[in-house]
Structures are given as structure tokens and as C-alpha cells.
Amino acid sequence: MTPRPESSGPFPEQPPNRQRTEPPTPARKKKPARKATQPAGSRAAGAARVGAGGTTRGAARAASEATSAPVPENSPQLTPPEAELAVSPAVDSDDRDRLLHGTHHAPHSVLGAHPVPGGVAFRAFRPYARAVTVVSGGVTVALHDDGDGFFSGLLPLNEVPAYRLRVAYEGTELETEDAYRFLPTLGELDLHLIGEGRHEQLWTVLGAHPTTHQGVTGTRFSVWAPNAQGVRVAGSFNFWDGTGFPMRSLGATGVWELFVPGIGEGELYKFEITRPDGSKTLRADPMARRTEVPPATSSIVTSSAYEWGDAEWLERRAEVPAHRAPLSVYEVHLPSWRPGLTYRQLAEQLPAYVKDLGFTHVELMPVAEHPFGGSWGYQVTGFYAPTARLGTPDDFKYLVDALHRAGIGVIMDWVPAHFPRDEWALAEFDGRPLYEHSDPLRAAHPDWGTLEFDFGRREVRNFLVANALYWCEEFHIDGLRVDAVASMLYLDYSREPGQWTPNEHGGRENLDAVAFLQEMNATVYRRVPGVVTIAEESTAWDGVTRATHHRGPSGFGGLGFGLKWNMGWMHDSLEYMSHEPVHRKYHHGEMTFSMVYAYSENYVLPISHDEVVHGKRSLVSKMPGDWWRQRADLRAYLGFMWAHPGKQLLFMGQEFAQGAEWSEAHGPDWWLLDPHYGAEADHRGVRDLVRDLNTVYRATPALWQYDTEPAGFRWVTGDAADDNVLAFLRYDADGSPLLAVSHFAPVVRHDYRIGVPDDVPAWHEVLNTDAARYGGGGVVNPGPVKPEPQGRHGRPASIRLTLPPLATLWLRPA
């Protein structure tokens, strides 16, 4: 952020490039002095009156006191101006009308103190005030009440002094700095970068920031609203009447700015925008870093005092790229994981629970502020604010810090594809399409009733790219799972012919969205080492996880993501598991097809919230058969999932075989783990399995080191459809193998022969999902299993195993 310009002299300088100029000084002629005529609505220079309860002084007395009272060191002296040079200090009718109607783009050029012929003109706009007095050193000079909240006076000064305003209202009086005597709080470099759409720390200059400016404490407000006729700040500090708080336009950038002295953290505010048609709208700050608790919608002035304790975590998280490291994710909807807990209360429970189960990361369903809880955070209105439902931004930092100190990474769902139409938020923010595309066919999202961002507009791209950086830099987020990428990439997504327009090449690709995603990924990876970006992309788009500078067959550079959700694997494998075992041999390819494209991208295998809501049933309830078989199938499936190339993601509640669909209203059914519940052991057994899967997984590089390279995988048998058996080997960088065998039939197969390498003297079972402690039948292979020189599955040796019903086995060299 660029340094802010400060006054170089003993008195505040006036803002440059004032839009309103004072009348030129008339040519002087040597002639006898004549009496000045007093303009209507003003008083002669030096005339003054005090506020309510005071006395009125004559012009002579005011001038005498002004010149004889003690004056601060270096203050300009009050000297009588020549009467023939005096001009009216009052706000002229045009400026007055524009200020009253909220359409003035340069209020600082009118209000405040300005050198004019005959002295310094003071003008204040204080609706509802009974009197306004200028206070400078030991001098107090009351301004004339010009009506409608305007006050003015001409003081016989050679320069603008340091001054304050004493404002009298009915029953009270306050002394304050004049907001219209300050220079802009945004520097030239900030404005240049905003105009170019390249301000990577946009949140540090736009929005509301408590600060000290020109030696005065207050809050600087700034907002991008290029189509507005005028913008004013309204809030709790001015009784939600922004009339007296007009902002100034900072040129072609479309940014409006105002420094308001004397207010700070905790104040509520919004921006009152005068649209191009003259109507007004009250809007929450798009850059607000804190909001009220929904359904209230105000933004809150905030600053952070949080001191992080995760330096060690941050230092080592970039040591190994995510695709070559163990990554096992527990997906959490924070408001319902333990309903009623705050961020800080969650910090006392969530890290311990996740660490006990062995997950490497949590993925938090969108924590950015959203008006409707039932959207689960996927319709965002406060892109820069953690939801206030659970606490303050610093409270959310405390939760992230606690997870890091427990050795757990934090991935956050991020939603740059669209936003809701709430009239107080981003939709037609300044009276015209701004954040959304100006073409209605491109703006309206056909599935969700929301609006799509205009990715082709540089300021909108800047808003979103900076937002990605904001979460990573300010909240130490370790990964961004980007929602609904497919809906961004295709112009015809969920649209019928005639409802979309091809791109400039005649194709269906959204070139603007492609460029945005490439810029976002490149910027995040450049600025925040160790962070991973993950795409929820459900199509076969070429190069989602390819580097942006590497072009693929389609002619596009890669999108630059680190990982991609493997939606194909998820749909195919769940479809297979939903069939009765007797029919699974006809669907065997649904479990093997994923290996045809397993290395086309860097994949995550997701069993997310989307798969356990809206009538899809919970994971265990997708399995056929009775309760025993459902649990056995679930355990076998989890064992297959953890062994398959790719990282893992499991939604909360599925780790203990919750039978009901997830509901954000009450969260996981924790009562299933109550020791007094009759079937508690069944649910605890599945959770114990998940813990052991993670424990063995993290200790076995063969299961994660070569996830994205063909050298890390070898089929043993992928065609044993009649037996419902799949077997494969995973290898680490040193060539050490793990053998995974999944058996999806409800029978025991004795002496089942599996081909193995002949250079391993013996194998031992390190995990068996049918173990009794998991709720299984206890059919295991105790002791070392030695190869026999009998070829099988194209290998020179084989071992004989007892395959439990509906189970997965993992074996390693003994």
C-alpha cells in the first residue's frame, strides 16, 4: 500500500484539483476605500456569533478578539482584508442543490476551509445543527446559518489555519474535526493499480479502515461505484442519515472516498448511492471485513488486533507440494458441526476431534457472509467478511490458528462464480450492472437465480483475485476449494440454444472466466507459498491442473489449479456400490474406469455434502441390504477410496455411518455415539476404521507420494468381475509397495490367489475392514503371508488370501 500524502506545512493543505473554483480576484485600482456590500445569506468578514446559549458579538469586536487572542505558534495572523476584495463565503445554489440531493462529486472543493479573495472561507454542511463555530487556537468564530444545514463565514486570514468545528444541536454540543479539511487517503499508486485492475491487496485501500490521517484518528471510507451520481456514508454515527457525509470522487477510477474523524471500530455503516436516474439505494460495503449477524445487513468498521501463533506451521507447509503429500480432508459445515458453538468454542473441540481421527486438513464450507443459512454459504454477499453468526473476524482467526497449532491445514470453500440478487448487496450496485455482466444472457445464472460475475471487467477480476489473496494472507487459509468452476467455464452452461452467445471464436468457452481463473491461480501461487487451489469442476475440461503457461490440445493454457475434484470417480463408484452384489459384476467397469484418466489431472476423491442431501441419502444408506451389509459395504468402500490414487475428502457425519441425511438445522447425529445407545458400537466401529485408515495412510508414502504419476500404480486384477474383486499395487518413490484388495461380494473366499512381485519375501495385513473392532465378522489373515512360485495375474508369484465378505484388505511387505 502506498504511503499517504501528508501536509508539509504547519496547516493542512487543500485537496488538489478542486472541481469548484472561487471567483478571480478583480484588478486593483488606487481609489478611496468604499463600504463593502454584504452578500445575501452571509455576513461581512469578521462578523461572528456563538452557538446556542451564547451571545452575539459585533463585527468589530469579533475582529478585535480574532486579532488579539492567543494564537498557536506559526498560525497565520487574522488581518482585516480589503473590503473591495471580499466575496461571499456561502455555498452557491448549484453546489447547495447537489449536496442536498446527494449528487456532488467533489464536496471537499466546496466544504471545509478555502483561501478566497478577502481571507479564508469556511463552509460546513451540518443538517439539524443549530450553530457551527470555528475553533482555532484560542479563537472561536461562529459561522452564519445559511439554512438547510449550511453554515459559512469569511475570516480575515492569510492562510488556512488548523481548526476544529464546534457543532451545537438541540440539547447537546460537540467539538470535532472537519471531515472536509483532509487530503485523500488513497495515494496515486493505489488509484493507478485500482484503475488497472491490479491492486493485489485491494482490501487495504477500499472499505472502511480505522486509521490516523494527518495526525487525526478516524475511519477512512472508500468504495468503487463508477456509475453513481454521488455517494454518502450513513451509519450509526450519524443516525443513518448520510446527508452531511458526502464522499468525493477520485477521478476516472470510479472510487469515492471520505475520511470521517472521530469514529472507529464497531460503528455500523452503509453507502447511500445516488443512481444515474437520481434514485437512491443504501448498500452494504462490498469490501466490508465485518458484518452484522444476519438477517441484519449493515457493515461494521473493524480492525484486527489478533496475534498469530502458527509461524512454525506456515514455515513448513510449502516444503512438499500438495499433490505429493498426504492430504485427507474432513469437510465441515461450521454452523452445524456442533450447533450453537462460536468460532472460539469450536476451536476448543474441532481441532482435537480432527486430529484424533488423523485427517490432515479440514475443509470449511463457505464462511464468507451469506444472508440465507439454508444456502450453506454458497450465495455470498460479504466476500471479505467471515460470517458473523459465529463471532468476529478475529474469532475466526483464532479457530484457524488453533487448527494450525494442532497440525491441521485449513481449506475454505470459495465462491467466485455468482452472487445473490439482494437489493442491499452487489446486484446493480450503483444503479447499473457493475459486478454482474451487462448482457442479461451472461448475467443471470439459470440454475440458482443468482447473478454471474463479469469476469471480463478488470475491476471485477481485481475484486475476486484480491479476495482469494485476502483469505490466504489475512486468515492464513491453506487452500481454496473453488466452487462451481464448470458453470464459469461454459457460456452454454445450463442454457438452451438461443439463450447464450458464442465467444469471439464461435466457441462455447467463457474466455473471460478462463483468463480470470488463470490470473487468480498464478497470483495466489506466486504470493502465498504452500497454498493449494482446488477446482470443483465436473466436466472433462482440458488442463484444469496444468500450469497456466502450458498449452494443451485445446489451445488453452492450463487453468493452474493444484488439485481437481474427481466427480467422475465419485458418481461411478457410488453407482456401483448402490447395486446389489449379485448385479455388481455387470457394473464392474464403474470401479475401474477412473484409472483410464487418473493421471490426466491431480485429483481429489470427494464424498462431499452434495452427496448426502436432497434425497440422495447418507453414505451408508446408499448401500443395499440389511444394516450389517450396509456397514460392511461402507467400510469396504472407504478402504477402496483411501487406497485409490488421489486425495480423500469425507463430509462430517459419514465418518461414523450416520443413517440420516445431513441437515444444516441440526448437524450430525452425534447421539449415535452415545454409549447408552444400543447400536453405538456399530457407529463407533466405522469411526475407528476411519481413524486407522488415516493413520496407515499418512505412514505409507505409497498411498500418496505418486498420486499423480503412473509409476505409482499397477493393476493386479481389474477384470475379476465375476468375483467382485479388485486388486492393485501402490508404490512410493523408493519402490516400496502396498497391496490393496477389495472384495464386494457378501461371501467368504478362501485361498483366493493374488499375483504379487517375486521380490517381496512376505506380506502382512496392515488393515482389514472386516476386523471385529470395526464391527465386522473378524475374517482376517493373521501372520505373514508368503508368496508361492505359482504365477497369477501375469506375475511370477502369488499369495493365497482369505477374502472376507464385503471388505478391503491392505498388505505391506513384512
TrEMBL record:
Q: Where is the composition biased (Low complexity)?
A: 35-50, 57-69
What residues sit in the active site? D483, E536
Q: In which pathway does it act?
A: Glycan biosynthesis; glycogen biosynthesis
Molecular-function GO terms, alphabetical: 1,4-alpha-glucan branching enzyme activity
**Enzyme class, spelled out:** transferase
> Which residue ranges does the record assign to the Glycosyl hydrolase family 13 catalytic domain?
331-691
Highest taxon listed in the record's lineage: Bacteria
What's the catalysed reaction? Transfers a segment of a (1->4)-alpha-D-glucan chain to a primary hydroxy group in a similar glucan chain
Quaternary assembly: Monomer.
What family does this belong to?
A: Belongs to the glycosyl hydrolase 13 family. GlgB subfamily.
Q: Which HAMAP family does the annotation name? A: GlgB
| Summary of the function given for this chain in its UniProt record | Catalyzes the formation of the alpha-1,6-glucosidic linkages in glycogen by scission of a 1,4-alpha-linked oligosaccharide from growing alpha-1,4-glucan chains and the subsequent attachment of the oligosaccharide to the alpha-1,6 position.
Under the heading NCBIfam families, the entry gives: branching_enzym, PRK05402.1, PRK12313.1
List the protein's name.
1,4-alpha-glucan branching enzyme GlgB
The species is Streptomyces lusitanus
